[in-house]
């Protein structure tokens, strides 16, 4: 069988089978630094703080000047009013650049409460404070809206009673991806899902079997032109006993992390060896040990279709 | 031929968590120290290379854009280099090439990571192929522990030998003002410490750090005009390999051997153990240092356990390895490899202070990303070649 015979049916014909959806949800504890930390802390007090850098005043307050890299010489309190310099609208709302009175660098934020068509470059706006401030978000300033009765004042240097800077802000980044299987992974995982069949591609020059399959051998750079079946048994090339717990872990520790070379393949596969005591694993699941795939009840078309590997006891 | 030298170095106060500065502020701190060391200002800098780990570490994509303000780098060439754990040295190589290529005369490299901000091992797992390995990856730790285990029988890299690396490097950290972990340990304590991914135990593992390092490079007369003590780069290389190529044994790192061979030839090194006065090696876990002894030719293959046991790589030995304490004192990953280079530069110019190796004239810095697949080597000397 040649590669072109099978790749056409990779991951069936259904559109959603061409991609593997994957979501990364990553928690962070971000450090805003001194100036931004104070800026955010002061929003609950309905005070807008800028930093002074020579003749420049930047809101939100910054530790360093973008023009010179020099640290700020001090803070100023500015009037929470300004003028729209630019804006854009989509289905979720309007974002604008607001030049706060007395400052030199515009502040990007939401523009809210404007009738369609009423917003123009140069429109005067005033701060809208959040009704339920969190104390650690720029959204404690909900945005800028019509100016109404709000007055302005000259920036006040060295305002008194500044809050302590927020040192840490919790943040979660959620990223959605659609990874294309492509012809090689597609064919492999179709076989895994439907027939529990593992196939690699064979290098036309060195005849080694590459798993996962790929078009070109990494060692010879010769085309891999044939499919080759690989067994679901193999040999541990390297192994460690996992005790640490971490985000996204699939199995409760302890368990064995293993790099396994399946019989008939020349490359390694990363998986786990289950049902072995952590202490015994040090010798029993050591490099050289023989293992067999234990297939899951799930048919997802991924390496997760193998529940784990088990030791083949001699 | 153009000879490039390190003319200034700087490091932050490294810490488990720096809450007083943002990522940009952290990078700036190291840059200010390096500029002061070189007696230069940003006006003197032609080009900036930012080196940092995967963007996932700090959740900020294209962080070099953010750093421009804090560095005062507006209107200057700024590029970012990222290449796994060896990123810092890859950044230095980019700077060397900019100078040798004639596009810049004085280049600033700033390398950093603020690892307190994200979940480290989980983020490292995102380096794996999403189809092939990511779902079972244990960051880099599961992998490293597995191949250390594979080396134990074949190369004799025992848990005891690795424990001696921890003892030595943690001892050396005590005299390094930039190290933030200062705690002496014994071999017995390392062996009895909690397993994280056996054979890796917690005392085989460096801290997770916030930190930055900056290095300024210039060539020939430019370097000599800036400082009476340039640290001349006699050779620098950075090599990678296919991650999933067939029949990789991973008992040795071929990229390390190739990088060392290339750099040694350039630098005239035929007997590294005798010709180097000092070495700074990037050991994310203790077992790595053992492997580097062999890959760098300090001893024959399988000789690392004997070398560490001999005491020859302690401060009192004939080739002190990691007088700074290496990663065991501080490990801000993106900066770590540049710290190794900066430390060797400090050693050969007599600026290493309390952890100075007396009379050091020539040293080697080594950087590594992944278990075996990205390796950098640089030879640095007091003498211009």
What share of residues of chain A is helical? Answer: 10-25%
The total number of structural domains of chain A is: 3
Write the H/E string of chain B, N to C.
EHEHEHEHHHHEEEHEHHEHHHEE
Main beta-sheet annotation of chain A: 5 strands, antiparallel
CATH superfamily of the largest domain in chain B: Thiolase/Chalcone synthase
- The second-level CATH architecture of the largest domain in chain B is 3-Layer(aba) Sandwich
* CATH domain fold name of the largest domain in chain B: Peroxisomal Thiolase, Chain A, domain 1
Give the quaternary arrangement of the chains: heterodimer
State the separation between the terminal residues of chain B, measured CA to CA: 10 Å
As for the number of domains of chain B, it is 2
Q: In what order do the strands lie side by side in the largest sheet of chain A?
A: 7-6-5-8-9
Number of strands of chain A: 19
Q: Helix count of chain B, per DSSP?
A: 13
Low-confidence stretches of chain A: 1-16
Reading off the top of the CATH hierarchy, the class of the largest domain in chain B is best stated as Alpha Beta
Structural class of chain B: alpha/beta
Helix and strand composition category of chain A:
mainly beta
Description:
- The complex is a heterodimer of chains A (314) and B (385).
- Chain A is elongated.
- Chain A has 314 residues and is mainly beta.
- Chain A has three domains: 1-20 and 182-229, no CATH class; 32-167, no CATH class; 231-314, Beta Barrel (OB fold (Dihydrolipoamide Acetyltransferase, E2P)).
- Chain A has helices at 3-7, 34-43, 182-195, 278-284; strands spanning 19-30, 48-53, 56-58, 74-78, 81-90, 93-100, 107-111, 124-129, 141-146, 156-157, 169-180, 198-203, 209-210, 224-230, 233-242, 255-262, 269-273, 290-295, 306-311.
- In chain A, the strands form five sheets. A five-stranded antiparallel beta sheet of chain A has the order 7-6-5-8-9, with no helix packed on it.
- Chain A is 11% helix and 40% strand.
- The longest helix of chain A is centred in the middle third of the chain and has 14 residues, at 182-195.
- Chain B is of the alpha/beta class and 385 residues long.
- Chain B folds into two domains: 4-120 and 209-226, Peroxisomal Thiolase, Chain A, domain 1, CATH 3.40.47; 129-207 and 233-381, Thiolase/Chalcone synthase (Peroxisomal Thiolase, Chain A, domain 1, 3-Layer(aba) Sandwich).
- In chain B, 36% of the residues lie in helices and 19% in strands.
- Chain B contains 13 helices and eleven strands.
- Chain B has helices at 23-38, 63-71, 87-100, 120-125, 141-155, 159-173, 187-192, 220-226, 254-267, 272-275, 286-295, 304-310, 333-348, and strands at 4-11, 47-52, 78-81, 106-114, 195-198, 200-201, 210-219, 231-240, 278-281, 362-369, 374-381.
- In chain B, the strands form two sheets. In chain B, strands 3-2-4-7-1-8-11-10-9 form a nine-stranded mixed beta sheet, sandwiched between helices. In chain B, strands 5-6 form a two-stranded antiparallel ribbon.
- In chain B, helix 3 (87-100) packs across helix 13 (333-348) and helix 6 (159-173) packs across helix 12.
- The mean pLDDT of chain B is 96.
- At the A-B interface, strand 1, strand 11, strand 13, strand 15 and strand 16 of A face helix 1, helix 2, helix 4, helix 5 and strand 5 of B.
């Amino acid at each position: 069988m040649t590669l072109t015979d099978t790749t056409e049916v990779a991951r069936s014909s259904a559109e959603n089978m061409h991609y593997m959806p994957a979501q990364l949800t990553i928690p962070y504890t971000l450090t805003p630094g001194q100036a931004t930390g104070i800026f955010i802390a002061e929003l609950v007090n309905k005070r807008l703080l800028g930093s002074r850098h020579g003749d420049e005043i930047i809101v939100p307050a910054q530790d360093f000047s973008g023009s010179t890299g020099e640290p700020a010489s001090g803070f100023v309190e500015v009037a929470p009013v300004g003028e729209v310099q630019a804006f854009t609208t989509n289905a979720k709302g309007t974002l604008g650049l607001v030049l706060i009175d007395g400052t030199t660098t515009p502040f990007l934020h939401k523009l809210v409460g404007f009738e369609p068509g009423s917003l123009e470059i140069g429109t005067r706006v005033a701060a809208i404070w959040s009704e339920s401030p969190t104390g650690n978000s720029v959204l404690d300033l909900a945005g800028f809206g019509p100016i109404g009765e709000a007055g302005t004042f000259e920036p006040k240097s060295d305002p008194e009673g500044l809050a302590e800077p927020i040192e840490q802000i919790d943040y979660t980044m959620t990223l959605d991806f659609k990874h294309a299987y492509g012809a090689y992974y597609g064919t492999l995982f179709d076989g895994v899902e439907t027939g529990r069949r593992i196939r690699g591609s064979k290098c036309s020059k060195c005849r080694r079997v590459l798993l996962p399959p790929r078009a070109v051998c990494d060692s010879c750079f010769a085309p891999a032109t044939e499919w080759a079946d690989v067994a679901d048994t193999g040999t541990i090339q390297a192994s460690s006993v996992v005790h640490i717990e971490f985000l996204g872990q699939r199995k409760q520790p302890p368990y064995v992390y293993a790099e396994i070379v399946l019989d008939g393949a020349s490359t390694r596969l990363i998986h786990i060896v289950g049902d072995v005591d952590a202490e015994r694993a040090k010798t029993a699941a050591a490099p050289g040990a023989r293992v067999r795939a234990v297939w899951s009840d799930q048919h997802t078309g991924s390496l997760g279709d193998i529940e784990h590997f088990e030791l083949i006891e001699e | 031929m153009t000879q490039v030298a390190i003319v200034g170095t700087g490091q932050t106060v490294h810490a488990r968590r720096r809450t007083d500065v943002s990522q940009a502020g952290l990078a700036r701190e190291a840059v200010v120290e390096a500029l002061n060391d070189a007696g230069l200002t940003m006006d003197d800098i032609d080009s900036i290379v930012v080196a940092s780990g995967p963007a996932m570490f700090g959740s900020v994509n294209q962080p070099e854009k953010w750093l421009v303000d804090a560095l005062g780098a507006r209107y200057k060439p700024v590029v970012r280099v990222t290449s796994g754990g060896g990123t810092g040295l890859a950044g230095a190589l980019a700077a060397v090439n900019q100078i040798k290529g004639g596009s810049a005369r004085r280049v600033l490299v700033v390398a950093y990571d603020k690892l307190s901000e994200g979940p480290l091992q989980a983020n490292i797992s995102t380096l794996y192929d999403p189809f092939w390995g990511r779902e079972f990856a244990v960051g880099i730790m599961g992998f490293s522990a597995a191949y250390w285990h594979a080396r134990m029988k074949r190369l004799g890299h025992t848990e005891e030998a690795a424990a001696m690396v921890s003892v030595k490097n943690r001892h050396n950290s005590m005299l390094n003002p930039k190290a933030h972990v200062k705690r002496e340990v014994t071999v017995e304590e390392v062996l009895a410490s909690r397993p994280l991914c056996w054979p890796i135990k917690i005392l085989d593992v460096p801290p997770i750090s916030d930190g930055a390092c900056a290095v300024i490079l210039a060539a020939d007369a430019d370097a000599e005009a800036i400082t009476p003590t340039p640290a001349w780069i006699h050779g620098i290389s950075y090599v990678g390999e296919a991650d999933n190529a067939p029949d990789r044994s991973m008992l040795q790192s071929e990229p390390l051997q190739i990088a060392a061979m290339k750099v040694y030839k350039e630098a005239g090194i035929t007997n590294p153990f005798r010709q180097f006065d000092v070495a700074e090696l990037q050991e994310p876990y203790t077992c790595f240092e053992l492997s580097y002894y062999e890959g760098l030719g300090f001893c024959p293959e399988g000789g690392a356990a004997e070398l560490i046991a001999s005491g020859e790589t302690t401060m009192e030995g004939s080739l002190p390895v990691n007088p700074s304490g290496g990663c065991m004192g501080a490990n801000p990953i993106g900066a770590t490899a540049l710290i190794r280079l900066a430390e060797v530069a400090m050693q050969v110019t007599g600026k290493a202070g309390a952890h100075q190796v007396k009379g050091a004239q020539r040293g080697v810095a080594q950087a590594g990303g992944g278990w075996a697949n990205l390796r950098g080597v640089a030879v640095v000397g007091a003498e211009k070649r």
